Amino acid sequence: MAFANSVKYFVFIALLINFSFAQIRVSIPEQVIERGRLDTIEILGDFGSQSFNKITLVFQFNAYLIDIQNVVSDANNIISESKPNFSVQLNQLNDAILRITSSRLNITPNVEKTLCKLIVEGLVYKDSISTIRLLQLEIDDNPVDFTFEGGTVKVRGPLVFPVKENYLSESFPVPSTDRVFFRFGLTSSSKIELKVFNAKGEEVLTSNNSEVFKIIGTKGEISPEEKLESGDYLLELSLPLNYASGCYFLQLNAFSIGVLNSKFLIVK
User: Fold this and answer.
1) Which fold would CATH assign to domain 167-266?
2) Count of alpha carbons within 13 Å of 54, Cβ hemisphere only?
3) DSSP H or E segment with residue 238
4) How far apart, in whole angstroms, are the C-alpha atoms of residue 13 and residue 10?
5) pLDDT tens for residues 41-72?
6) Which residues pair with 168 in a beta bridge?
7) Contact indicator for 239, 212 with CB cutoff of 8 Å
8) Domain 25-156 is in which class?
């Protein structure tokens, strides 16, 4: 009988703990951001009566539509450090992953407060609606149940905002494994040619390999062989699996403009 009562007691405690964590609520109020400008998106949280030492949040978002550039907070928020640890995984741009972790917390029981804030930029698409979703929440390295609300982000602005100069950005993420992304802009329409060189200066890829290079513009995916209008673009480079670790160079030759160069690092 005593053993049975002990089992019931521990089961009760376990259910009570799970119920308490189930009261955790996270939300992102609907927000409108302007294309080409930096905006702040606030993440709110209510952790009931829980007390813990570490939190990890894993979000999913569409990196074609918004660029999460930074995560910030302050001493009044649940995450009390000014620059929480975060990482962005861009293996699939339409299902990109944002991971935020912090052990510096300021929790007020049963009060909804700001968790932290995202610094984001609306990207070069037509007026679009994106959703930031909370996929996983960990408390002291243990996944817990939660409820999540909101997350709708509306990106508005002109179909293409003016490009002031021709450019080819640095690669991201850094380092990369087999998929690399660049942004580039053209001030006038032009046919382009893309080439990749290894550290020895040997040409290893060209835009004739259409399955390797993918260009995304305001109207969707564009073949590298097409003439590009003036505007901003996203370039995705998927390297064959047999490419070794090392430094590589990307050359973008816009025939009516000139040559743009960037480098990237592959680590396997």
Assistant:
1) Immunoglobulin-like (2.60.40)
2) 8
3) strand 231-238
4) 5
5) 999 999 988 889 999 999 999 887 888 989 99
6) 184
7) yes
8) mainly beta
In the beta sheet, which residues pair with residue 229? none
pLDDT tens, position by position, 137-175:
999 999 999 999 999 998 886 554 455 688 999 888 888
Give the Cα separation of 5 and 113 in Å (integer): 40
Neighbouring CB atoms inside 10 A of 125's CB total 23
At residue 18, the 3 state secondary structure works out as helix
Residues 6+ apart with CB under 8 A from 102: 54, 55, 73, 79, 80, 81, 84, 85, 116
Q: Which two tokens stand for residue 105?
A: 């917390």
Nearest to 169 by CA among 94, 72, 67: 67
Residues of the chain with CATH 2.60.40.680: 25-156
Structure confidence by residue, pLDDT tens digits, 205-257: 888 766 789 898 877 788 888 899 888 899 999 888 788 888 999 999 998 88
Does the reported pTM lie above 0.70?
A: no
Distances (CA, A) of 54 to 111, 123, 141, 142, 171: 18, 33, 7, 10, 32
According to CATH, where is 2.60.40.2550 located in the chain?
167-266
Residue 234 exposed, middle or buried by CB count within 10 Å (0-12, 13-18, 19+): buried
